[in-house]
């Protein structure tokens, strides 16, 4: 498997309120643990909330045997732990969150909010893993309700995680068209170009993770 990531501040924000992480679990040779979060704008400490949510989720996943991560219920627990960790911050802050593991066993994960996870099968069929997620209560409220998901991940499959600064401005149809071609390190710049304003700047924070099975 290969992965590519990118996160960048949008011009309307003084700091990037998105956060992402993608790394392997030591319990398996071919896997990734992926987390992506979008701190809630218009409220204080969105950047801190998204960072802590991802870090708390990664910490929980790394402390779990890899075999036990092949469970939708375990991912619901992990996202709930992130919610409680963020809600305990004295500084406050709210965020979206997607957390998952991807390997030859498939994609197991859970999410809260409006960030998006898409899976493209080898035959080109599109699966929206986060389609049933609940936008609120958000991570950091201590009342978040994660919705779990599973999807097989066979040869020539592609996983995409992105915040709304990507899908809202580039458009899912345009993103799908780009990712239907050959996936490379140039795929993300192409999507960024579709999301950018005429000035070349981004209207919102832009964060994306691509994981290819080949």
Account of the 3D structure:
The chain is an alpha+beta fold. Helix content is 27%, strand content 28%. The protein contains 5 helices and 10 strands, in the order E-E-E-H-H-E-E-E-E-E-E-H-H-H-E. It has helices at 46-62, 72-87, 164-170, 172-179, 187-195, and strands spanning 2-8, 18-23, 31-38, 97-103, 106-112, 116-120, 126-128, 147-151, 158-162, 206-212. The strands form 2 sheets. The chain has a 5-stranded antiparallel β-sheet. Strand 2 and strand 3 (31-38) form a beta hairpin. Helix 1 (46-62) packs across helix 2 and helix 4 packs antiparallel against helix 5. The N and C termini lie close together (5 Å).
Low-confidence stretches: none
Sheet/helix structural class: alpha+beta
Helix-strand topology string: EEEHHEEEEEEHHHE
What is the distance, rounded to the nearest whole angstrom, between the alpha carbons of the first and last residues?
5 Å
- Please, how many helices? 5
Q: Tell how many strands the DSSP assignment holds.
A: 10
What tags apply to this protein structure?
10 strands; five-stranded antiparallel β-sheet
């Amino acid at each position: 498997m290969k992965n590519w990531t990118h996160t960048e501040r949008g011009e309307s924000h003084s700091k990037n309120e998105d956060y992402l992480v993608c790394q392997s679990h030591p319990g398996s040779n071919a896997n990734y643990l992926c987390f992506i979060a979008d701190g809630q704008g218009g409220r204080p400490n969105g950047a801190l909330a998204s960072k802590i949510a991802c870090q708390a989720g990664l910490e929980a996943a790394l402390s779990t045997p890899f075999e036990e991560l092949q469970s939708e219920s375990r991912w619901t627990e992990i996202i709930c732990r992130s919610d409680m960790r963020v809600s305990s911050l004295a500084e406050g802050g709210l965020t979206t969150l997607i957390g998952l593991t991807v390997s030859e066993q498939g994609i197991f994960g859970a999410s809260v909010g409006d960030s998006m996870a898409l899976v493209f099968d080898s035959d080109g069929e599109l699966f929206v893993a986060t389609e049933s997620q609940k936008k609120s209560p958000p991570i950091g409220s201590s009342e978040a309700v994660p919705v779990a998901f599973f999807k097989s991940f066979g040869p020539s499959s592609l996983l995409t995680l992105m915040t709304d600064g990507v899908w809202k401005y580039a458009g899912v149809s345009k993103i799908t068209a780009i990712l239907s071609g050959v996936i490379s390190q140039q795929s993300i710049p192409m999507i960024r170009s579709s999301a950018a304003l005429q000035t070349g700047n981004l209207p919102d924070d832009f964060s994306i993770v691509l994981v290819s099975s080949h």
